[in-house]
Design a protein that fits this description.
It is built from 13 helices and nine strands. By secondary structure, it is of the alpha/beta class. Bound molecules: 5'-deoxyadenosine and FE2/S2 (inorganic) cluster.
Length: about 325
């Protein structure tokens, strides 16, 4: 698709029915009916950065900060095994107390005890540190670039650097990770042109995974008063990303489920093929508050497991049996 075609398809004036049907067809052809479940463990909400959109930004005094211990993470990994998930995603803010050494140690422990694939989502690090984490056994890494618009990026992430973000993505690939990135849809000041650029960039970067969610204003951040993104725009982004990138893994994100009770189901019907049920300890879930209203905060890991199984049954889809590795690099 050309940039102009993508821009036209993003416009709320065009009926998305055809776009969604095509994305569903491309999804079926390239990644099949299987849905991969990735158990998400949010292991620390400490963060050194001050991104304008994010609830766990440094300096937000309203956040009750927590940090799981290695044993608590191991417990989470065990619950993922018992729920028959094949992957855990370990996500945190950029927490200096969870440095590469500590991260490598827990990755090694989980790998020694389980057959789980491990995805890290722990922000920007040096090339050497990424290599260390890969050598410790981590399989995949998620680092959203958030927006391809350089100016918007600098506004939203005042203590980050646009070029550095993309350097990190290149280092991750060099280190041998399966790499995921992504953006928020409906950021203040984000144009459909820049969202079209986001999608073309997903392709250019040859990503293995692409995560997209609507921006949801958090009242305890500088963007607290801004309007949020719509589910419609986020779904169009998912559909276009599927059509353009073909065989990437695309999650139906929690943010989509947060702004619409059927958000994740709708995403699974227009291109998505991954769900990320929460396996964080229930007592900390409300504290990992990137945005307000987040779903699944009162559930236990088992309840989210049952919930996603019911969701898949309702959609006539089934759980994948394999690890759900990249379809670009290694296959199954
Ligand atoms: N609304 C929606 N998504 C958000 N994220 C962070 N803050 C928000 C928000 N207010 C997303 C970012 C980040 C991911 C972990 O969560 O895209 O990369
Ligand atoms: Fe957590 Fe549905 S996935 S309750």
């Amino acid at each position: 698709m050309t940039k102009e075609e993508i821009i036209a398809a993003l416009s709320p004036d065009t009926d998305p029915a055809q776009l969604f049907a095509l994305a569903d067809q491309v999804r079926r052809e390239y990644v099949g009916e299987d849905v991969h479940l990735r158990g998400l463990i949010e292991f620390s909400n400490h963060c050194r950065r001050r991104c304008y959109y994010c609830g766990i930004r440094a300096g937000n005094a309203k956040v009750r900060r927590y940090r799981l211990t290695p044993d608590q993470i191991l417990y989470g990994a065990r619950s993922a095994v018992s729920l028959n998930y094949k992957t855990i995603v370990m996500q945190s803010g950029e927490d200096p107390a969870w440095g590469p050494k500590e991260l490598a140690a827990i990755v090694e422990k989980v790998k020694k005890e389980t057959a789980l694939a491990i995805t890290l989502s722990v922000g920007e690090h040096s090339k050497e540190d990424y290599r260390t984490l890969r050598a410790a056994g981590a399989d995949r890494f998620l680092l959203r670039f958030e927006t391809s618009d350089r100016r918007l990026f600098s506004m939203l992430k005042p203590d980050s650097n646009y070029d550095q973000r993309f350097r990190c993505l290149a280092w991750l690939k060099e280190a041998g990770f399966q790499v995921g990135s992504g953006v928020m849809a409906g950021l203040p000041g984000q144009t459909s042109e820049s969202m079209a650029d986001d999608i073309l960039l997903f392709k250019q970067l040859e990503l293995d995974m692409v995560g997209i969610g609507p921006f949801i204003a958090n009242p305890d951040t500088p963007l607290g008063g801004a309007p949020g993104g719509t589910l419609d725009t986020a779904l169009r982004m998912v559909a276009l990303t599927r059509i353009v990138t073909k065989n990437t893994h695309i999650p139906a994100t929690t943010a989509m489920g947060t702004i619409d009770a059927q958000g994740r189901q709708k995403a699974l019907k227009c291109g998505a093929n991954v769900l990320m049920p929460n396996i964080s300890p229930t007592e900390y879930r409300t504290d990992y508050s990137l945005y307000p209203g987040k779903i699944c905060v009162n559930e236990q890991p088992e309840q989210c497991g049952a919930c996603v199984d019911a969701m898949l049954a309702g959609l006539g889809r089934k759980r994948a049996e394999g690890f759900g590795h990249s379809l670009k690099t290694s296959g199954e």
